[in-house]
Structure formats: C-alpha cells, structure tokens
Specification:
369 residues, Enolase-like, domain 1, TIM Barrel, 13 strands, binds calcium ion
C-alpha cells in the first residue's frame, strides 16, 4: 500500500464557527482505495499544523508505505525540527501518525488496540472535564458540576482556565469553589482540580494542602508548564498527586517532567506523536512507575485514538477525559464515540473504528491556504 495524497482541512462544527473553533482533520489516501483519518490539535483551529501538513509534509510522503509510520514520524520530526516540535509540528505529525495507524488497522482488518498488543479493557470509564470555573461564582460552579453529573462520569475535574499572566489571583475563592464542589458531590466522589498553570510555587502549595484536606484525587498543572523544575518541586512537596504534561510535545519533555518529580503525566495524542508517540510515553511511564493519563479534549478522531492506546495499557489508574459532552462534533461521523452508562465502548471494527459521512464532510470542510 502506498500513500497517493493527503488532504488537510478544517471542519466547521457549527455554521459560522470562527477559524480557531474548527476541527483540524487529515485524510491520507492510498493506492488501495483505503483512507486513513487523522486529527491535529485544534488549538487555534489547528491552522498552523494543517499548513505544515499541506506545504511541508504532503509532497514528502507521496509513495511512502503507511506501515512505515514510525520511520516516517522520526524522519519528518528531524527534517522539520526547526519549525518547532513543541507545538504546531507536533500536532501535524500526530495527525499523520493517527491516520497511518487507521490505515494499518484497515489493511490488516484489526482494531488498533489489537495491533498495540491487545486490550486490557474495551469499556472505558470517563471523567467530566469542566472548564472556565475561574470566572464563575461558587453557585455557578456547582450548577455546572450538577449538569455534568447527569452523564454518569466516574469523576469530575474542575478547570480554572484563568489568565496565565495573573498567578494566585484568587486563592481563597478557588478554595471556596473546591470546597463547595466537595460538599455537593459528597465525600466519596472522585474529584480533580486543574489549575491551568495558575499558581506560583507558594500559591500551589497552599492550594494543594487545601485540596488534600478536601480529599481531591489529583492537582493538575499547578504552575507554568515551562517551569519544569517548579512543577516537580510542587509535586514533591505535596501529598496529593500532581499532574502535568498536556503541553509537553516530545518524549524527552515527558522524561524531564518525570525527572523533576511529576508522578502523573498527561501528554495528548493529537499533540505528541500520535499513537506512536503516546505508546513511547507509555513505555517511559511504565519504566518509571509514573501514571499515564492522557489529556484528551477532542471528542472524535483524537479521542478514539487515545482510547485505543489507553485500552492497551495494563494500568488504568484514572478514567479518560471527556470535555464537551454535546453531540455538536458528531455530525460528520456514522459512529461517533458516545458513552453509554458512563462508559465508552471501543469498536471492534478495523482501524480507529470511525466512519465519515462524506456529504457532511463536504458541506463542512474549510480549505486552508
Ligand atoms: Ca488541563
């Protein structure tokens, strides 16, 4: 099987979506007639990753064998490294890798998790990931949590999404919200707090102690992601599990976090190396006894790819992340991933297990320059 052409484009989920809110899709076409589906990180609509795919990768991989996905990934990473592996290039390579694994599964007639060595589980619980709580009142935070409890999540994560240039802006308010959510859900329900890089080291220690008293499960990205040593310092000083890594795009970056003392890492499949990259992370984490809990806020292609990898890991210490529970990003799929009674069920069909509706793709696609 040879690659004949790749097609990188945005998908408009709702008519009039601004460019930065669209999905970033990749189709890889082959001479066998099989097509692979990939998705880049849709931060700012994934525009820069799609541009790299269109202008710097497309011509370089015509004629390549999709089964050479790891060689293709590493060759392109080194060829294009000056475009910035910590960002848009990582997203582009991730989209390509996911599409090549989809092709591999379709060619061999197996779901991807089988090609990764088999699934420890094919039913995956999820946690509800709830953003923008920094600007909500205590009552509004509780209302948002109540709404998401209806989906039967195994856990709830409240994200703060504050202005990263204003650390420690309202620690008493943050503690009040964390406490109110704990009172709402009861003592036994698993909760996580995502600081979205909103604290100094001192602020993070203070917040972390409060979360320990409130019985939170993990404390995510307490300080700026680029202060790796400080992230590790917070992790080592607190008893609560401190997590980080959703803004880490390389294997060596994940290794740095682990060396610093972080014991739960959250690389994102649409940012770092796709399935190939995340499986390398899994080996690194297994070797160091570190929890791998992928960040995952893309509800369709990326989400499905991430679940195949999670299913193949022996340790599933935390549920999968589910950000947007609405069906608005399901429109282009015959069989979008939908949880049933609080669990996603991995499809048994070849590849990712996702089929596009061509007419919907055609009507929603936005070509890039
Ligand atoms: Ca996060």
């Amino acid at each position: 099987m040879k690659i004949t052409r790749i097609d990188a484009f945005q998908i408009e989920w709702t008519p009039g979506d601004p460019a930065e809110r669209r999905g970033a899709f990749l189709l890889v076409h082959t001479d066998s007639g099989i097509t692979g589906l990939g998705e880049a990180s849709p931060m700012q609509g994934g525009l820069v990753s799609l541009t790299i795919l269109k202008h710097h990768i497309a011509s370089a991989i015509i004629g390549a064998d999709p089964l050479d996905h790891a060689v293709i990934h590493d060759r392109l990473l080194h060829k294009l490294v000056k475009l910035g592996p910590e960002g848009a290039l990582g997203g582009a390579l991730a989209a390509l890798d996911i599409a090549l694994w989809d092709l591999k599964g379709k060619l061999l007639g197996q779901p991807i998790y089988k090609l990764l060595g088999g699934a420890w589980r094919t039913e995956l619980p999820f946690y509800a990931s709830i953003g923008n709580n920094g600007v909500r009142s205590v009552d509004e935070v509780c209302k948002a949590v109540e709404t998401r409890l209806r989906d039967k999540p195994s856990a709830i994560k409240i994200r703060f999404d504050n202005d990263r240039t204003k650390p420690d802006i309202d620690i008493p308010g943050d503690i009040a919200k964390a406490r109110a959510v704990r009172q709402l859900v009861g003592d036994d329900f698993p909760l996580a707090f995502d600081a979205n890089n909103g604290f100094t080291v001192g602020g993070a220690i203070r917040m972390g102690r409060a979360l320990e008293d409130l019985g939170y499960w993990w404390f995510e990205e307490p300080v700026q992601h680029y202060h790796v040593a400080q992230m590790g310092e917070v992790a080592r000083k607190l008893d609560i599990t401190v997590s980080a890594g959703e803004q880490t795009y390389t294997l060596s970056g994940v290794a740095d976090l682990i060396s610093a003392g972080v014991r739960m890492v959250q690389p994102d499949i649409v940012k770092m190396g796709g399935i190939t990259g995340l499986m390398r992370c899994a080996a690194l984490c297994q070797a160091h006894g570190v929890e791998l809990v992928p960040h995952q806020t893309q509800p369709t292609i990326g989400h499905m790819a991430s679940m195949h990898v999670s299913a193949a890991q022996p340790h599933a210490t935390k549920p999968c992340e589910l950000d947007d529970p609405s069906p608005r990003r399901h429109a282009v799929f015959v069989n979008p991933p939908r949880p049933v009674d609080g669990r996603f069920h991995l499809p048994q069909t070849p590849g990712l297990g996702l089929d596009l509706i061509p007419a919907e793709v055609a009507s929603r696609r936005i070509d890039i320059g």
